[in-house]
Design a protein that fits this description.
The chain is an alpha/beta fold and 186 residues long. It is built from 7 helices and 8 strands; from the N terminus they run H-E-E-E-H-E-H-E-H-E-E-H-H-H-E. The strands form 4 sheets. It has a two-stranded antiparallel ribbon. A two-stranded antiparallel sheet has the order 2-3. Strand 2 and strand 3 form a beta hairpin. Helix 3 packs across helix 4.
Length: 186
């Protein structure tokens, strides 16, 4: 949790510190509780001051931080629903704080479980895990859709399904509770 120590620096202290390192820009948070209803995980509540403190909106290298960039981009392009991995669920509170401060209407959020390897590490391109290009070489789209539906518990066995067939089976409310954390991929 960031302590907020930079809030009280004098101008001289700021100038002295900036001689050795460019500062990041943070937004000050208060004790307000943010809350939203995730379309999968339900009610989520957080007091940013107790969880992360003032958070970075512009990095020391001059680039805008993810939290600010995604809020402005989504608001400016009219995004109304965000579906993403549950690893990003905690950062939603920072984004909601920014939506409010910037006067934007926030989208609805739906965080989904991640695919994990047998050791519990999330699968990712960064770690050179099997990606969609490799899977497309081995399986038809219908076979992949069927496998995903089986991983998520909508079918007992994996078999080829069209997108329309999968959509007919799918329901947020029917998502199995065992998925609340993540799906183990073997």
């Amino acid at each position: 949790i960031y302590s907020g120590r930079c809030r009280t620096l004098t101008q001289n202290e700021r100038q002295f510190l900036s001689q050795t390192r460019l500062p990041a820009k943070r937004i000050a948070v208060d004790n307000t509780c943010t809350s939203f209803v995730d379309r999968y995980y339900g009610l989520q509540q957080c007091t940013l001051a107790h969880v992360c403190g003032d958070f970075i909106i512009r990095r020391a290298d001059g680039n805008f931080a993810y939290q600010l960039a995604v809020v402005v981009d989504d608001a400016e392009t009219g995004v109304t629903e965000v579906v993403r991995g549950n690893d990003l669920l905690p950062s939603t509170h920072q984004q909601l704080f920014l939506y409010e401060k910037l006067g934007f209407c926030p989208p609805q959020f739906f965080h989904i479980p991640l695919l994990l390897d047998a050791d519990g590490r999330r699968l990712s391109k960064r770690n050179k895990d099997t990606d969609m290009d490799i899977l497309r070489q081995r399986f038809s789209p219908q076979e992949l859709i069927g496998y995903i539906m089986q991983l998520c518990g909508f079918t007992e066995h994996s078999f080829a399904l069209s997108l329309d067939e999968a959509l007919a089976m799918f329901s947020c409310k029917k998502m199995p509770k065992f998925l609340k954390n993540s799906i183990i991929y073997r």
